[in-house]
């Protein structure tokens, strides 16, 4: 049954959403370009020699921020905004009476967008290497595979967190404002602005208990070749997915009971 | 005996609505202490619908027609009462139940805006577990019936409203549901598109014996499709029965325009005891109760020299207008 779901429904959804995303290729290129915050952060770190305080070389730091860029490109989630808009416009109603949870549609939308983003991310990486030739490296196949897995798990964690927040649309019309509360810890604790390694030890011990460092810092460290506890990190990612999934299901079922089909 | 496919008993639905007093004081009060009140939009209604029946829900805006449809298709939970649709509790949204129904809301679309409708059709086909061959066959059949073969490969955003609505119908019917819930399906369509849609629905009902529940403010939709109507007034059922019976009840009198050969005959007719509405030279309009139409016509034709006569039905929209504001019909 699950294989049928993945093979037929998800695959078709993915195909259709990919065709749809190709209609927006310029927009997606712009989105990819807009994700260059890690390069600005790299500039701030290297210009102020901040990397010396955490014993990371310039090369490793530039690889880290390039990997942050990559991980971010393939784990960015906006389901709360899509679901909120669809709820307000009454578009969720037809999805709710189809024998497929609407969140599979959003999942396929995100995956299709990631596939569309891929060439643009490669082009940006190419230009990055032109300006930073010292940072060029080719990760081995095992590392590449592990980083792809951990990036996908990071995407799933973010997708589940945002889906839980999105379900609050059943109670409040503006669930995205709740998501903004999560944006602040995501920004500071995920490794987007600074490697988590740069935080004081006692702060780190707390941060690692949250899902945030496993969203960007952990997959970026694997890909860039920085020292990291791979099995521990992957286990934590899987644990967060296992914890978040039932929460999502519970809030989804409670929410659909509250649904008033407004806007339709 | 035709079995009931929809069974509703003592159904009620309440919504909590936030209330706010006007002005700055009300806004501040609302900010610190939200107040809401429970509004009962559906009040203890019961009805059954037979398999293959086309039923129209009539009522003014906000009467509760759409809420009933949403409850029947499982979109919203009922507050009280019991509902069985095709043997299922709709709000449980079981896969087999969902494969049996469809909901079409006028002006609300499920087609992917930037892609041709064919992509949405294949997507829906996979959602409903249809293989590619079967999907192709059904798309062909339905597109023939709806006459939209040429539009299948044009992006939805480039289609006219009528073509989009037909495509919506195809997307909603690809899994061949047994029960169709249609909420204002002809909203915004031009006369021809409305007529074609009605023609299609009639044909679909005849070919598949599907049950159709319909709400519409276009009376032609109701009169040409539905034999039975349920009138909803403030969340309660004010009438449930045959449409023609309701129309007879609401318009018990017909008007007959009689053109006499001479003014003399017209004067004779004027003084013969009929209720006269108006008279001009040799033309007289009389009012006759429905039950006396035949006997009155006999009397007129036998006793007066008549050149022509016309029996006028009151406009259907006028009668339905009465339905929307009337609370009860004792029929």
Protein model, in words:
Chain A: This is Putative multidrug efflux ABC transporter. Chain A: It comes from Prochlorococcus marinus str. MIT 9116. Chain A: Keywords: Membrane, Transmembrane, Transmembrane helix. Chain A: It holds the Pfam family ABC2_membrane_6. The complex is a heterodimer of chains A (264) and B (331). Helix content of chain A is 72%, strand content 0%. Chain A has 264 residues and is mainly alpha-helical. Chain A is globular and about 55 Å long. In chain B, strand 11 and strand 12 (283-289) form a beta hairpin. In chain B, the strands form three sheets. In chain B, strands 5-6-7-3-8-9 form a six-stranded mixed beta sheet, with helices on both faces. Chain B has 331 residues and is an alpha/beta fold. Chain B has helices spanning 23-32, 65-72, 95-98, 117-127, 132-146, 161-173, 191-208, 219-225, 243-250, 263-270, 293-303, 316-325, and strands at 4-19, 35-50, 54-58, 80-85, 101-105, 179-183, 211-215, 228-233, 236-242, 253-260, 275-280, 283-289, 306-312. Chain B folds into two domains: 4-248, P-loop containing nucleotide triphosphate hydrolases (Rossmann fold); 253-312, Alpha-Beta Plaits (2-Layer Sandwich). The mean pLDDT of chain B is 87. The chains are: A mainly alpha (264), B alpha/beta (331). Chains A and B meet through helix 1 and helix 6 of A and strand 5 and helix 4 of B.
Rounded average pLDDT of chain A:
88
- Roughly how many Å apart are the termini of chain B? 25 Å
CATH level 1 name of the largest domain in chain B: Alpha Beta
SS element count, helices of chain A: 12
CATH homologous superfamily grouping of the largest domain in chain B: P-loop containing nucleotide triphosphate hydrolases
Short description:
Chain A has 264 residues and is mostly helical.
